[in-house]
Amino acid sequence: MQSLDTLVSQLSLEEKVALCSGEDFWHTKSIPHVNIPSLMMCDGPHGLRKQPGDAHFLEMNDSEEAICFPTAATTACSFDVQLLKRLGQALGEECQAEKVGLLLGPAINIKRSPLGGRNFEYFSEDPHLTGELATAYILGLQQKGVGACLKHFACNNQESYRMTASSEVDERTLHEIYFPGFEKAIKEAKPWSVMSSYNRLNGEYVGESYSLLTNLLRDKWGFDGFIVSDWGAVNDRVSALKAGMDLQMPGHHGMNDDVLLKAVKHNEIDEEVLDQSVKRLLKKVFKSYENNKQVVVSKDQHHQLAKEIAVESAVLLKNQGVLPLKESGNRLAFIGEFAKAPRYQGGGSSHIHPYQIDTALEAVKGITDVSFAQGFLLEDHPLNERLLHQAIELAKSCDVAVIFAGLPESFETEFYDRPHMKLPAVQNKLIQEVAKVQKNTVVVLHNGAPVEMPWVNEVNAILEMYLSGEAVGEATVDLLFGRANPSGKLAETFPLRLEDHPAYLSTKVVDHRVYYNERLFVGYRYYDARKMDVLFPFGHGCSYTTFQYDQLKLSRGQIAEDEPLVVQVNVTNTGNYFGKEVVQLYVENPTGDTIRPVKELRQFKKVALSPKQTQTVTFTLTKRDFSYYHPTLHDWYVETGEYGILLAKSSRDIVLRGTIKVKGKTKVPTGITTNTTFNELIKNPKLSQMITELIETMKEDYQLDIGMIQEMPIRALASFQVVDQEMVNRLVTILNILNK
């Protein structure tokens, strides 16, 4: 193939402009006379939503049959990078079979609030977990010759006013919470494309931000793919192209082609900027064309993979002994509409036309006899007394009652956020009434985000299935009967009530702005800092077996910031079932003047152990694991101090603890002014002795309180007539000289 430079030189200006917008809703334009093919892209991220050629974007449910895998909210709870890689590979095979070159996924926005309407599409409240899983997913997908489109960059954390709202976020929070997932995936997995989000960020549309799309994505992180707009997100096409947004989707029937053409002709845009966008796009278009292969997908095998992923991701929130269920000898009741019509995916552009839906009622038939009662109507209708009474009477007559509850699709979908965290009232009433007459009540949940559980202390067990894809029924039954051992851990915190979550007071869009006032304290970072009770903490999940941690070893007792720290711990399955454990390593930050979360997840590993088996788990921590983003440096900074190394089963269940002294090397520039305080000067090793002596002199000569002196700025010496202003200015000059 001829070089891209040569190819682009053969294109007319009109043809180059045309390539920067779609042919229709799902294809880039082809130019036959120079053999430029079209690239087809389709929605993901948990299945292939390929629409018929004449289908409209808003016809969400009109798509080709495909495997509906568990959603990201579910798969994140697996804490299993290899599983996510296999998911990516399976999606790549399905794309190849359908001649799709680019899958629009994964979606990795941080779950800032449990109310986000699209939270079921996102992985976690934690940036490290998000980045690890996204990287694995992309690597798996692109191994199959299909490109990933990482989305939605950036801070598209709610659906309300998403096309106009400005997310107001400080620099440090962006780099510590909302950017790291994108950064890791771009640097390590190299996605073919990034999708710019609808929203504005600090007043500027993301799709028009040169600092985000070019300075950050390309120059700093090394992104070498093309940037595509979210569908319908382009505000100003000329500004977007200048910023580095290469492809507008959908095509808008060429409406903006004329706008770009005039801008180039009138020298509003240098033609070289246009050429670069065309080259970035064509590089991936030809790569897709060259990677195109004949693939035959076994949907039955992929359905089984969907089941495996659902099993690995389900979280046993609570179990007081009723689970696993016995396959014989018990009278069992399945109660709730979801037992025969499960909720398995969210609504909106990721909605999949499933290949085969497994229900719990069908799956249990091969194991034991179960009686069924509907219990409630799916939507939040007024209480149906007849259905409630039938369910209660059935529960009384059985040994165990399993209630299948959750959120109807209308409660959580793209385009709008949830107004509350409650289950439908009829379901809460059903659970509470059944629990009164049946001590062995199990609740199975189908939901894409946290829900309040006013009945949590009244039931024996809770199995959180999230939105587990088309094989949810078989997966649920295998878990209930112990044919599989639950091993998922929560990838987000479940608060006791809506009012407890950190962004509660600042999720409302006001004057087309949403203020991220909680800053760094998203999810468990907030709850742990507040020492606040939660319903279930981040990283929590029960098992049918037990695990013991011991023999924590650190390779060093003290390191410099550029030296690695190797951490080892032994994990033993001390129970009677084969099981998998997610070993979580948190770094506890030193207590100092810098505002930092108490602890942060830095590493994790999922291990599989037979009864009585022990495995040594090894982690390697590097500079970034001890760093925070310093706004003055515009870079990562290691604070000298003592850090805790915490091995844990959840953010609240710390099993083993070690400490490491870390020596930072980078000096933060600190120009001294008349407003520099004395306690800031005392902390400067070059000035500490001199300032300490000066304070002692002032304390004795002027009978000043030591606490008052320490917090005073230098200019206060003149204000309180200790010295004159000229002397203050001379002192500042001397201190700056000594500080060099």
UniProtKB/TrEMBL annotation:
Domain Fibronectin type III-like: 581-651
Keywords: Carbohydrate metabolism, Glycosidase, Hydrolase
Organism (species): Turicibacter faecis
Gene3D superfamilies: Glycoside hydrolase family 3 C-terminal domain, Glycoside hydrolase, family 3, N-terminal domain, Immunoglobulins
Protein family (similarity comment): Belongs to the glycosyl hydrolase 3 family.
Superkingdom of source: Bacteria
SUPFAM superfamilies in alphabetical order: (Trans)glycosidases, Beta-D-glucan exohydrolase, C-terminal domain
Segment forming the signal sequence: none
Pfam entry (one): Glyco_hydro_3_C
Transmembrane feature ranges: none
Protein name (database record): Glycosyl hydrolase
Gene Ontology MF terms: hydrolase activity
PROSITE patterns: GLYCOSYL_HYDROL_F3
